[in-house]
């Protein structure tokens, strides 16, 4: 698991302003997005971390760092080892944090996230999507690192963030945003399988009191000028109205 000062669910830090951390210090990590069918539509599993540390009380997906044993269990070229180790880490963390028993071969790569320079701990994180049975075993959290769990539709979780009822880091919110129109887990899995996982190297900018996460392709990604007219690929974290803006 991630330690209390590290966070989870993509390991973003929106406001930390410490000095740049060299790229070589990125820490491999993995996150799993469990989805299930429900009468209200497709639901995702979210966990609330404890109140301690940089990401205290944040709602996240199960996840954490890749351990040496994870990488040591995989044979293949560099790409195979990286992906295989991330799969094993995601499965292990889901078991530790939520008592989920997942098959690593069922994990579908969804996205890859690198937090901005200046984060205290910079986790290079693979996000995986997987369907779990709606009548499966109950989620059990340890009440230590994880306080509670809840199955929610992505749209409901987004509404709770904007109602100040849930705190999240950008990768978690962005993932929910992209899943909000999905109503069927199998369709969501098929859509994820049909495309190359997107990669996001986040840059943070502040406009007045509003933080914005920028990704490559946004007009402001290089110079930080948020008012320019042009392509947008960003998360605007305006209180009460967090939203993804993407156009061409």
Q: How would you describe this structure to a colleague?
A:
It is a single chain. The chain has 248 residues and is of the alpha+beta class. It folds into 2 domains: 173 residues, Nucleoside Triphosphate Pyrophosphohydrolase, CATH 3.90.79; 47 residues, no CATH class. It is built from 5 helices and 12 strands. The strands form 2 sheets. Strands 1, 2, 3, 4, 5, 6, 7 and 8 form an 8-stranded mixed beta sheet that branches. It has a 4-stranded antiparallel beta sheet with strand order 9-10-11-12. β5 and β6 form a beta hairpin. α3 crosses α4. It is globular.
User: What would you give as the CATH superfamily of the largest domain?
Assistant: Nucleoside Triphosphate Pyrophosphohydrolase
Largest sheet: 8 strands, mixed
- Structure annotation, total helices: 5
Q: Quick one: how many beta strands?
A: 12
List low-confidence stretches. Answer: 1-24
Oligomer: single chain
Identify the overall geometry: globular
Mean pLDDT: 87
Task: Assign the structural class, choosing from mainly alpha, mainly beta, alpha/beta, alpha+beta, or little secondary structure.
Answer: alpha+beta
Helical proportion, percent range:
10-25%
Could you tell me the CATH topology label of the largest domain. Nucleoside Triphosphate Pyrophosphohydrolase
The sequence of SSEs as H and E is: EEEEHHEEEHHHEEEEE
**Separation of termini?**
38 Å
CATH architecture of the largest domain: Alpha-Beta Complex
């Amino acid at each position: 698991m991630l330690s209390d000062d590290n966070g989870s669910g993509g390991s973003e830090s929106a406001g930390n302003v410490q000095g740049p951390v060299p790229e070589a210090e990125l820490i491999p990590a993995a996150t799993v997005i469990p989805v299930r069918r429900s009468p209200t539509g497709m639901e995702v599993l979210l966990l609330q971390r404890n109140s301690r540390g940089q990401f205290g009380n944040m709602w996240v997906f199960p996840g954490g760092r890749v351990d040496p044993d994870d990488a040591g269990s995989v044979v293949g070229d560099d790409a195979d080892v990286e992906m295989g180790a991330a799969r094993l880490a995601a499965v292990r963390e889901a078991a530790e944090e939520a008592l989920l028993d997942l098959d690593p071969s069922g994990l579908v790569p969804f996205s890859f996230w690198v937090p901005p320079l200046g984060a205290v701990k910079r986790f290079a994180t693979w996000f995986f999507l997987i369907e779990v049975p709606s009548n499966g075993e109950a989620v059990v959290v340890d009440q230590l690192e994880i306080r509670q769990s809840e199955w929610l539709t992505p749209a409901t979780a987004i509404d709770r963030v904007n109602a100040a009822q849930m705190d999240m880091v950008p990768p978690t919110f962005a993932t929910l945003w992209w899943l909000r129109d999905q109503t069927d887990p199998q369709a969501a899995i098929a859509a994820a399988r049909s495309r190359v996982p997107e990669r996001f190297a986040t840059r943070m900018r502040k406009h007045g009191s509003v933080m914005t996460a920028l990704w490559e392709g946004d007009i402001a990604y290089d110079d930080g000028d948020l008012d320019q007219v042009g392509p947008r690929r960003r998360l605007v974290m305006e209180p009460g109205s967090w939203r993804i803006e993407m156009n061409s």
